[in-house]
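As a warm-up, study this chain.
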Amino acid sequence: MKIFSKKALGDYGEAEAKNFLKSNGLKFIESNYKYKNKEIDLIFCDKKNKIIIFVEVKTRTGKDFGEPERAINRDKQMNVRSAARVFVSQNDEFEEYDMRFDSVSVFMGSGKPEINHIENAF
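Now compare it with the structure written out below.
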């Protein structure tokens, strides 16, 4: 198994999540959107169904601390929601879209990464 710094592990997980979501037909919009001290890992849209999707990605190398998505606590959820409202207000094309908040966990065990995508996670 490769040894990653915390940042490199996060970047790798985000890239895996991005590729996974694109392969499932979603249109990539932006990564690492920042508003003040808040950040959204990935932003996608489903144009057909008029949904903008804000994705929180958690990557882990072990399950000692439980499933990765359990790390998306209430404060993190509120920060993502707040940044999402700003993003939509700055991007008129998504004004009529419904918002959805997903999580993608990437578990780096042995071999190919395991990906768990939860729609409407919070």
